[in-house]
Amino acid sequence: MAVGKSNQRWCSDGFEFNCDNGEKLRVTFALDCCDREALHWAASTGGYDSETVQDVMLGAVERRFGRNLPSSPVEWLTDNGSAYRSHQTRQFARMVGLKPRHTAVRSPESNGMAESFVKTMKRDYISIMPKPDGLTAVKNLAEAFEHYNEWHPHSALGYRSPRNICGGEPVMG
């Protein structure tokens, strides 16, 4: 669900993939629903949990607002996963200036931007990057996220990249 201005709505979701040695990596991320920048992400061989989601929330706020909190709440759109719906996560979100919002139950298309990002990451990056083990995969994933932000063109952005829209600097609200 796109918006007309950065820092109005962010979306978050997760995905997983296997490394060549059988390790499974689970990735949680946050995107701005206007400029499409991947604001922050975390990867783990554990499950999706509220602590990881909170780390991503805080990283996204710091990316866009530095040491400050947003002057008005940023909508935080997610699916209905337990890590997102937990009381601790929702309370933390409000504490750092986010306004938790969830998609309708059994309606993942409501978070279509996040779903599209997952497809892009898997198709354009993960499918071709070396991933012999978790450590190597995380290092290459960091490069993939950076490339996505710096160079990946989006039709909705006039075939420009997220950082081309926001000038390579955090978009302060």
TrEMBL record:
<feature type="domain" description="Integrase catalytic">
    <location>
        <begin position="1"/>
        <end position="170"/>
    </location>
</feature>
<dbReference type="InterPro" id="IPR012337">
    <property type="entry name" value="RNaseH-like_sf"/>
</dbReference>
<dbReference type="InterPro" id="IPR001584">
    <property type="entry name" value="Integrase_cat-core"/>
</dbReference>
<dbReference type="InterPro" id="IPR036397">
    <property type="entry name" value="RNaseH_sf"/>
</dbReference>
<dbReference type="GO" id="GO:0003676">
    <property type="term" value="F:nucleic acid binding"/>
</dbReference>
<dbReference type="GO" id="GO:0015074">
    <property type="term" value="P:DNA integration"/>
</dbReference>
<dbReference type="InterPro" id="IPR050900">
    <property type="entry name" value="Transposase_IS3/IS150/IS904"/>
</dbReference>
<protein>
    <submittedName>
        <fullName>Insertion element IS2 transposase InsD</fullName>
    </submittedName>
</protein>
<dbReference type="Pfam" id="PF13683">
    <property type="entry name" value="rve_3"/>
</dbReference>
